[in-house]
UniProtKB/TrEMBL annotation:
Gene3D superfamilies in the cross-refs: Vaccinia Virus protein VP39
InterPro entries according to UniProt: Malonyl-ACP_OMT (IPR050602), Methyltransf_11 (IPR013216), SAM-dependent_MTases_sf (IPR029063)
A Pfam family that the UniProt record links to this protein: Methyltransf_11
Biological processes per GO annotation: methylation
UniProt domain Methyltransferase type: residue ranges: 54-138
Keywords tagged on the record: Methyltransferase, Transferase
GO molecular function ontology, one term from the record: S-adenosylmethionine-dependent methyltransferase activity
Annotated PANTHER family: ARGININE-HYDROXYLASE NDUFAF5, MITOCHONDRIAL (PTHR13090:SF1)
UniProt-recorded name of the protein: Methyltransferase domain-containing protein
Keyword presence, 4Fe-4S: no
Length: 287
């Protein structure tokens, strides 16, 4: 990672949040497992086998699912507590500096774990470097408008009570940004598909509890320090649109990303002038 990259996120805070969440992540396992299952389902469309896998920040869910598919998998996490809870090989490391030799893996998976890195293009380039030729990268990343309602509710409540706002929700990329990032990092056949995981909470506090249990609370460097005042939090939650029974519906919008490490055997588009049949003849059905 270049030190010229803007440091939007406090990686120390991210690690502390994940350390704390190691004891509570089981409460959000159904959400994490749903995202992992949808992402790994893409392997069903691939005919080649995978033997050496790397899980980046899967919180115990992704590596288990990869191993269940017969893929020898190393899991990694910024939190040593998360690593200690894994049943297989684990490396405690920062995803912004991948400590692996080139071509070490033929499959790398990052499910809901890369939205807190500062240099995402740099991380993706490192992932491509540790993939063997024709290796596959799979990622699931939150995208806009995830948590948009909570973001606006917090801003409105803070403006009303304090006359100003501080950043409280991570800035998520858009779907098009994700596809562009894969291409920029040098992946071939890059694809970013939109998907939505529908969630429901009995009360708005359930959403905040899930964020905390998953280690997803505010880690922005410019965040306000200290605990959010209960009056401010109550005002913000009161602004969220709830159902008649007081429940809160939330959609987790994600980009399902796939990209391949370049290899000579991969198909390549023809250069202009290489076609032997004109478009006019093809449409008329004549040779």
């Amino acid at each position: 990672m270049s030190m010229d990259v803007p440091q939007i996120f406090d990686r120390h805070a991210v690690r502390l949040h994940r350390d704390r969440a190691a004891a509570t992540v089981g409460h959000v396992r159904p959400v994490l497992a749903e995202a992992a299952d949808r992402l790994l389902d893409r392997l069903d469309d691939v005919t080649r086998p995978f033997h050496a896998g790397l899980d980046i920040g899967g919180r115990g869910v992704v590596a288990q699912a990869m191993r269940a598919r017969g893929i020898a998998t190393v899991t990694t996490d910024l939190s040593w507590r998360m690593c200690a809870a894994d049943a297989g090989p684990a490396v405690c490391m920062d995803a912004e500096w991948l400590p692996f030799a080139p071509h070490s893996f033929d499959l790398v998976v990052a499910c809901l774990s890369l939205h807190w890195v500062n240099d995402l293009p740099g991380v993706l380039a490192q992932v491509r470097g540790i993939l063997a030729p024709d290796g596959l990268f799979l990622a699931c990343m939150p995208v806009l408008p995830t948590l948009g309602g909570l973001r606006h509710a917090l801003m409105e409540a803070e403006m009303a009570q304090r006359g100003g706002v501080s950043p409280r929700i991570s800035p998520f990329p858009g779907l098009r940004d994700c596809a562009g990032l894969l291409q920029r990092a040098g992946f071939t056949l890059p694809v970013a598909d939109a998907d939505v995981i529908h969630l429901s909470y009995r009360t708005p506090m359930g959403l905040l509890a899930d964020l905390r249990n998953a280690g997803e609370t505010n880690a922005l460097r410019m965040r306000a320090r200290g605990l959010t005042h209960p009056a401010l939090l109550a005002d913000a939650l009161g602004r969220l649109p709830v159902e008649e029974d007081g429940s809160l519906a939330q959609d987790l919008h994600v980009a399902m990303m796939t990209g391949w490490s370049p290899a000579p055997s991969q198909p390549r588009p023809l250069r202009p002038g290489q076609f032997s049949v004109s478009l006019e003849d093809a449409l008329r059905g004549t040779p």
